Amino acid sequence: MDLVALEIFRTVAHEGSVTRAAERLGRAQSNVTTRVQQLEEQLGAALFLREGRRMVLTPAGATLQGYAERLLALAEEARQALHPGTPTGHLRIGAMESTAAARLPAPLAQLHARWPALVLELRTAPSRQLVEQVLAHELDCALVAWPPPGLDEEAPVPRTPVWTESLLLALPASHPPAETPADLRVHTLAAFAHGCTYRRIGEDWMRQATGQAPQVLELASYPAILACVAGGRCAGVVPEAVVDLLHTPPALRWVPLGPCDTVLVHRTGYATPALAALQAALHGAQDTPSVLAPDSSLRS
Q1: What residues does the HTH lysR-type domain cover (predicted)?
Q2: 28, 90, 144, 262: which has the highest count of C-beta atoms within 10 A?
């Protein structure tokens, strides 16, 4: 095994395709196929099942993937440690959808402008999945709403507060004023998949009305969530910073749900110049929250 072979294996595993892996790596498809076959021969185990053009990990491949992630992450950390004053190499950042849209463009642009040799990779997912990916060495760090559902607040992952978001419950414009869960007239929550902290907060708030968890309509973006709320049959939890991004926000009713901290998490002992540069950029990012009247209809 060598690091190049492991990088090729990891990329094929992530992409599920030799063609897409070759495009991402800038290699010929035949080269990627040959390196995977050589790795299988060296290890004496099939790593992928070939299903047409799809490459699916075998149990042995899934086992190797965890080791490959850790080995490649450690190799990258070692390379960066040799140049402590200069952030270089790769930094794999995870973030919630709302954070990526509303908070990260400015600090990441600043980071790129100051350290152009540093390659930034950004992935989005719900908070719990992001923490799991950090612990599995699939990400170097992540910005999550704390605590993620299903993870103990004392989870062994270092975290640094970065922002405090003001959360809003979006209701249809025709909904009567709602000051408490008992005032709700809708019983469905439009939200992201399991593992989203904001979804859990919305579920907990709505549960107070009936003692039962609301039905959840799982969606993949805030525009889709707001569109469903505007349709009149569900509620949605949205950070105020996301509402501020909209040029023409929908005329909905907004109920304040309170603050929720966004924190930067990384693995214990992980410390690189790239991570330090990101932390500095986040620290320098200006936080200019808007003012939204409680339980109001938003006007463009």
Answers
A1: 1-58
A2: 144
Domain assignment present for residue 6? The answer is: yes
Q: Does position 1 have pLDDT exceeding 80, yes or no?
A: no
What contacts 69, CB < 8 A, 6 or more positions away?
10, 136, 137, 138
d(CA 36, CA 68) in angstroms, rounded, equals: 13
CATH number at residue 180: 3.40.190.10
CA 63 → CA 19, 46, 83, distances in Å?
A: 23, 12, 32
30, 40 Cβ separation under 8 angstroms: no
The pLDDT assigned to 295 comes to 39
- Encoding tokens for residue 270? 């992980």
> pTM above the 0.85 mark?
no
Average pLDDT on 5-28 reads 92
Q: Residue 293's pLDDT band (boundaries 50, 70, 90)?
A: very low
Domain boundaries, position 65: 1-71
Cα(175)–Cα(151) distance, rounded to whole angstroms?
A: 34
pLDDT score at 294 = 37
Domain-located, residue 296: no
Flag whether 153 is in a domain.
no
Phi-psi region of 195 (alpha: psi -120 to 50; beta: other; left: phi over 0): left
